[in-house]
Amino acid sequence: MPKNLLIICQKVDENDDLLGFFPAWIREFAHHYERVSVITLGAGEAQLPDNVAVYSLGKERGVSRLRRWIALFRNLYRQVPHHDAVFCHMSPIFALCAWPFSKFWHKRLVLWYLHRSRTLRLKLAVALCDAVVTSDIESLTLRSSNIHAVGHGVEVDRYSTPQRVAPDHRPLRILAVGRLSPIKDFGTLIRAAAHLHEDDIACEVRIIGKTVMKKDTQYAQQLHTLVNRLGIGHIVHFFGFVPHRTMPEHYRWADIVVGCTPTGGIDKALLEAMAAGCVVLTSNTVMKNYLGERAPELIFPHGDSRALARLIGGIQDFNELARTMERLVSVHTPKVVVERIIPFL
To answer: What's the pTM value of the predicted model, to 2 decimals?
Structure first.
């Protein structure tokens, strides 16, 4: 068994809506190492085993960015020599900061990255790291022999819904999850809901997510205006921020989970929805690799609200699709993904 692993990540907090899944990865790494040390920008609530130590740079306490940078380099200097490998999660800048230390002390350096962006930082990280791992090669626009697909870790058991009931005698329950940002294109779902309403197909829509960037606030206002203009405020509901730990109940409520992003990185929310047995509809064609032979009937053209409405209204075999979703995502658990990452460390 390898001795020690150093992880660098953005946040360790099971309540976080975007990164609340990562403590499950840390717990899985802890099964394979004697000791796991985690340097993180900020820390919150997380149930971690005794062989895990978390070193927060203080973002949750309001520590300034300069002081966080100083703390990061101080921790790298102290921690890297005593670990067998360094694993950086999602941020190429972490890998770039860790590289001089890992190079000097001859430690393996691996970056996990999943995003459609193609930045200079990412290109440098791909060149300098011993390996870059991602969920699916098509999730990155960058191509390199140093990039390896390992799947996407989802806590399948946490989202499982054994007694799911098909929507035979009630309105369809449709859910969308993500930051209120233009890239998520919630407007397409809202317009699709209006089409369903016009076609007398009863439905209820929940949109879960918060604004993050300043420009997102204006976009959120545009979404509310669109709902009011279409006269569907009684069926489209905005839930705002929802802690990651409470998301399973929303997936269990939903029959259908919709992702309206263009082709790019895998949407974690869609995989969580599959684990819960929800029918997943998406305009992100990368998801075809996760949806199996049913993919052609579950993918719609990006921005085409009428096509989305037709897909929603045409679903008949909810129970069969639910079982298919659960089966397809069962190979993407944290256990499986971590076991695939470890050989690169």
So the answer is: 0.86
Helix, strand, or coil (residue 220): helix
Task: List, for residues 203-244, the tens digit of each pLDDT value.
Answer: 999 999 999 888 899 999 999 999 999 999 999 999 999 998
Q: What is the DSSP string of 84-134?
A: SEEEEES-HHHHHHHHHHHHHTT-EEEEE---S---HHHHHHHHHSSEEEE
User: pLDDT tens, 88-135?
Assistant: 999 999 999 999 999 999 999 999 998 767 789 989 999 999 999 988
Query: How far is it, in rounded angstroms, from Cα 10 to Cα 94?
Result: 9
Strand-by-strand arrangement of the 4-12 sheet: 52-56, 35-43, 4-12, 85-89, 108-112, 131-134, 147-149
Tokens standing for residue 78: 């102290």
- Nearest-angstrom CA–CA distance, 24 and 49: 11
CA distance 129 to 20: 26
Q: Which two tokens mark 51?
A: 């062989």
